[in-house]
Design goal:
The chain is built from one helix and 14 strands; from the N terminus they run E-E-E-E-E-E-H-E-E-E-E-E-E-E-E. The chain has one helix at about 65-70, and strands at about 1-5, 10, 25, 35-40, 50-55, 55-60, 80, 85-90, 95-100, 110-115, 120-125, 130-135, 140, 145. The protein starts with a strand and ends in a 5-residue tail after the last strand. It is an all-beta fold. The longest helix has 4 residues, at about 65-70. The chain has one domain. The chain is globular and about 60 Å long. The strands form five sheets. A four-stranded antiparallel sheet has the order 4-5-6-8, with no helix packed on it.
């Protein structure tokens, strides 16, 4: 990190000279559904990708296992389609979601994420099975169900 003269704010120096390498891709068979990726987040242990797709819910995709041990990436590596290991259909718009901060694939109890959606409670989902672990409901000052919105 570096700081500009007279500033106490630190800035990260990125190296944009290195090339991007496509590791894998995900696609839907039925294009008439008009699914598109809204956002994605890597798991804290780096083994899974949690994605939100419009109209298709939440998906957990595992990083290809050959990438765990490689010291470097070959540009000739085949690009394989990714298939979700777990898919959870969600009704309506998903406002935000997040992995459990201590998530580690070797400890199944930590493999979960929360999601908050339009006019609904917060759900805690199991990343191995896709089962609903828990539901958290927020209420406003007149005892009406209130969706959680993160900022």
């Amino acid at each position: 990190m570096s700081t500009f003269e007279g500033s106490s704010v630190g800035y990260v120096n990125y190296n944009f000279q290195s090339t991007t390498l496509e590791l894998a891709r995900c696609q839907w068979a039925n294009y008439s559904d008009q699914h598109y990726l809204k956002c994605c987040k890597w798991s804290p242990d780096g083994t899974c990708l949690l994605t939100i797709a419009r109209g298709a819910g939440t998906h957990v995709v595992e990083l290809p296992s050959d990438l765990y041990t490689g010291e470097s990436m070959l540009t000739s590596r085949p690009v394989n389609p990714l298939s979700p290991a777990v898919s959870v259909p969600e009704n309506g718009l998903i406002y935000d979601y997040s992995w459990y901060p201590g998530m580690n694939s070797s400890n199944p109890a930590t493999c979960c994420w929360v999601a908050s959606g339009h006019e609904g409670p917060i759900h805690l989902w199991d990343a191995f099975t896709g089962d609903l672990r828990c539901t958290y409901r927020g209420y406003n000052n007149v005892d009406e169900l209130e969706a959680a919105i993160s900022h």
